[in-house]
Amino acid sequence: MVSAYIDGMKPLLLLALAASSVFAADPASVAKEELPSLVVLYKELHANPELSLQETETAARIAKELRDVGLEVTEKVGGHGVVGVLKNGEGPVILVRTDLDALPVKEQTGAPYASTKMAKDDMTGREVNVMHACGHDVHMASFIGTARALVKLKDQWKGTVVMIGQPAEERVLGARLMLRAGLFSKFPKPDKAIALHVSSDMAHGQVGIVEGYALANVDSVEVVVKGLGGHGSMPHLSKDPIVLASQIVLALQTIVSREVRPGDPAVVTVGSIHGGTKSNIIPDEVRLQLTVRSYRPETRVKLVESIKRIVKAQAESANMPAEKMPEVHVSDDQVAALYNTPELCKEVRAALEPALGAENVLTREPVMGAEDFAEYGLTKEKVPLCMFWLGTQPPEKVAEAKAKGTTLPSLHSPFFKPVPEPSIETGVKAMTSAVIALMKK
Q1: Which residues have CB under 8 Å from 164's CB, separation 6+?
Q2: b/e code 407-438 from CB counts within 10 Å (16+ = b)
Q3: Whole-prediction pTM value?
Q4: Which of 272, 284, 197 is nearest to 240 (CA)?
Q5: pLDDT tens digits for range 311-341
Q6: How many CA atoms lie within 13 A of 96 on its CB side?
Q7: Which of 130, 225, 282, 353 could staple 117 via S-S, CB 3.0–4.6 A?
Q8: What are the DSSP E strand ranges found in 168-312?
């Protein structure tokens, strides 16, 4: 009698299990299912960071992870770039990007998986400590989790996903390198592109969106101030570049305060000044290094032109001869402002609010940091972009810092320490939900 009852219940049990599995097939359940292995991946990546243009092992690991879930993978696109293509019938093409590189920073978080890696810095020639101080390890773990989720949820979307692992973001070179290598010609050209970036001042479980200008134009400028060296006791026989450099630094402060329209964001910062070897020697040369930031293209041009004009005028006022006029060099390591396409950001927000809860989808203010994700929207294709921010910190610490008016360790700090489990789970859930919403059947 009992066995007959059980046999009779089997079809109902099978139906219940089937219904349960269908119900569970969503970004949240896949993110939770994949989380343990993604945290292991995160810790391995965190403990083994690589500098910009040196991402050999990192790129190979990301390529393997994408292949393992069935993507068509191409390596060495623009250096260490990785491209994974996932096709699922006719539909839009969505690009999802992560960055691969780390920073020359000595980690001081105390985490058991903290980086102890050293590497030769190509820019300085010195051996340096290396750390994922900008959260690219969280980006990569969320990226791989998204790839796994999209494969498992292929019944919910149609089209092609192009997933790229980009090198050299910290030197704002990688996007241009991949584009020059044929990213938009050798692979499916995207209709839209999305990315996430960790935040150091948002609670995990939250994301933030900025519509319009989100990050700044960045130019690196070097000013070589020339002079005529001599003995410190006889300055009248010299042309002192230290005094001239000091006058230039002060004069540069008037650009933003007196030449840029109030309300138009702009920054001119002299971050480095080097000259001289001894207290009683007037040197021949002083070098200034500047970071120059803005949003609007016309403001960007004006800032650099004003720097050149002020440097020249200050040298002339010091009666420097023509052959001793300062040199102003604008570096190729520059990036355009990130403009988050408002229409696309609204689509992403509409996907994230039901997935995470509307209270966890914040509206962020733009900042003057930089990101070469902007480059993907500046090609002739004019691809719409949306980068959103991912919270990484314990809610109680965020609340405490806000109440006290203090700040938590920022990105690029040796003390920046995201909480991996909830941050990665939210990253996978958010990115997967956004992609599926943009590629609905």
Answers
A1: 77, 81, 82, 83, 84, 95, 96, 97, 98, 178, 183
A2: ebbebebbebbbbbebbbbbbbbbbbbbbbbb
A3: 0.89
A4: 284
A5: 999 999 999 999 999 999 998 778 999 999 9
A6: 31
A7: 130
A8: 192-203, 207-209, 212-215, 217-226, 230-231, 266-275, 281-282, 285-294
